[in-house]
Design brief:
By secondary structure, the chain is α+β, with helices and mostly antiparallel strands. Among the domains are: 104-190, 2-Layer Sandwich (TATA-Binding Protein), CATH 3.30.310.80; 244-461, no CATH class. The chain is 34% helix and 11% strand. The chain is built from 13 helices and 10 strands. It has helices at residues 2-44, 49-58, 63-66, 129-142, 244-255, 284-298, 328-336, 361-373, 382-389, 399-409, 416-421, 435-441, 454-461; strands at 104-110, 119-125, 146-149, 158-163, 166-172, 182-190, 260-262, 269-271, 444-445, 452-453. Helix 5 packs across helix 12, helix 8 packs across helix 10 and helix 9 (382-389) packs parallel to helix 10 (399-409). The longest helix is centred in the first third of the chain and has 43 residues, at 2-44.
């Protein structure tokens, strides 16, 4: 019984296995047939128009491979704002001419006259007039320019300087423009051709000018455009402009015939009965002339204290003061006596005297004190000068001049600095000296108890004595 049941089940299982195998085989056959049909259809239509269209539709766009990509919008380049001047310096601009650092060039104008070769530059600056004026005065002197004339302390007129065959005129406008800007002009050209002067009042010797600002230059002894007045002119202008404390000093020296000035035309020297233009800045040339004249007049009866004038056969100590210079005897005489530094004394290698440059305070004391002490100046340093005088700006004083300034302190109330500048804690060594201040320094020669004044010399010359 059991054998029959087992045999029937095994037979049923075999039938199910065979059916499953048959189904699998049928599916495999169908798949194979489908693949063969697909390959056959592709092969059959490979060269047909439909296959070509299909191929082209599936191919990549040739424009994308041969042409550049679509342009991407690019913003325009940013142009830097040019804050410099709109005008440019001429390519042949002389490098010898100093340029004010805080200035903007507005325009360049060349003269239509080719023979004159003049160029005018118009500038603007936010700095005041006196700052620009002081810059050019200092730079021209430092670079050994010959200053022909200078503007007044209010900025009127022009600063004219020459060097070799180059002539430069700096014209400043005292009027402040909109926004606080100051306009000025620089005109340059060959020294053989005159540079057009600014339409400002002339700064001749016969017109008084205001007191100078610190370090402010002023005119020399001759103006840029000589006046057609006679070559000899008697100057007689009441001294009502100088400080009251200095008026008597100038009056005494004028009566001695010391204060000789040249006429407007640059003619012969004329002794003034009163000091003309007392507030005008004095030049180095003029002070050297007065220094020799005052010393020799005050010590007229004492030959040992006279300064001998140089003779024509003397070899010039300075290249800019030749034998033909009208002040050669006085300037050369001071150099040969060792009273001013020169190549003869070995104290300086500078071969130029700069006769028309403004006289500074420290230079005035440096030249004058040796004629007071009649001795070698002592050694000195800035600390010693500051301790004695109490000057806040002692560090600005030249080391050579500090020796004379220290020696001047020992002269008490007869010291030149006390007589000329009264009480002060600021010496301002580079500030220009006026004619009135120069006269005050020359009123007295010597030390306490052993000196003579212009008043003493006048009493000696008086007929009643």
């Amino acid at each position: 019984m059991l054998h029959i049941i087992f045999t029937q089940r095994r037979s049923s299982f075999g039938r199910r296995s065979n059916a499953k195998t048959t189904k699998t085989n049928i599916l495999a056959a169908v798949n194979t047939w489908l693949v063969i049909c697909l390959l056959a259809s592709l092969t059959a239509c490979a060269n047909s128009p439909n296959s070509k269209a299909l191929e082209e539709s599936l191919a990549a766009d040739p424009k994308l491979t041969t042409e550049s990509p679509l342009p991407v919008p690019v913003p325009p380049p940013v142009t830097a704002v040019d804050n410099s001047a709109t005008a440019k310096l001429p390519p042949d601009f002389p490098i010898e001419i100093p340029l004010y650092p805080n200035a903007q060039l507005l325009a360049v104008d060349r003269s239509t006259d080719a023979s004159a070769k003049k160029v005018r530059l118009r500038w603007t600056s936010t700095d005041p007039v006196n700052s620009i004026q002081n810059f050019y005065s200092t730079e021209f002197q430092r670079r050994n320019w010959e200053i022909v004339s200078s503007p007044t302390t209010d900025g009127e007129g022009s600063l004219v300087a020459t060097q070799e065959n180059l002539r430069v005129s700096v014209s400043l406008s005292p009027t402040q423009k909109v926004g606080g800007a100051t306009e000025f002009r620089i005109e340059y050209g060959n020294s053989n051709g005159e540079i057009a002067a600014s339409p400002k009042p002339s700064n001749s010797e016969s017109s008084p000018s205001p007191s100078p600002l610190p370090n402010a230059p002023n005119t020399g002894e001759t103006t840029a455009t000589p006046s057609p007045s006679p070559t000899s002119e008697k100057v007689s202008v009441p001294d009502t402009e100088s400080p009251q404390q200095l008026q008597q000093y100038a009056t005494d020296l004028a009566q001695l015939g010391v204060l000789k000035v040249r006429s407007k035309s640059g003619g012969n020297l004329e002794a003034a009965s009163t000091l003309p233009e007392p507030n005008k800045v004095i030049t180095r040339r003029e002070y050297a002339r007065w220094l020799v004249a005052a010393n020799n007049q005050i010590f007229a009866g004492r030959q040992a204290k006279q300064i001998r004038l140089a003779v024509e056969s003397s070899e010039p100590a300075f290249s800019d003061v030749p034998k033909t210079d009208p002040d050669f005897p006085a300037i050369q005489g001071l150099a040969e006596a060792g009273l001013i530094p020169s190549s003869l004394s070995g104290e300086t290698k500078d071969v130029k005297f700069r006769p028309n440059a403004p006289l500074t305070r420290e230079t005035m004391v440096f030249w004058k004190v040796p004629l007071d002490t009649r001795q070698i100046l002592p050694t000195a340093n800035i600390e010693a000068v500051k301790e004695k005088w109490g000057f806040q700006d002692a560090s600005k004083i030249d080391s050579q001049a500090s020796r004379a300034i220290l020696a001047d302190f020992n002269n008490g109330d007869l010291a030149n600095i006390r007589r000329v500048f009264s009480f002060t804690t600021l010496f301002q060594p580079k500030k220009s000296v006026t004619r009135a201040e120069a006269a005050a320094s020359l009123w007295y020669f010597g030390v306490q108890g052993e000196g003579l004044s212009a008043k003493d010399a006048l009493q000696t010359k008086s007929p009643t004595n």
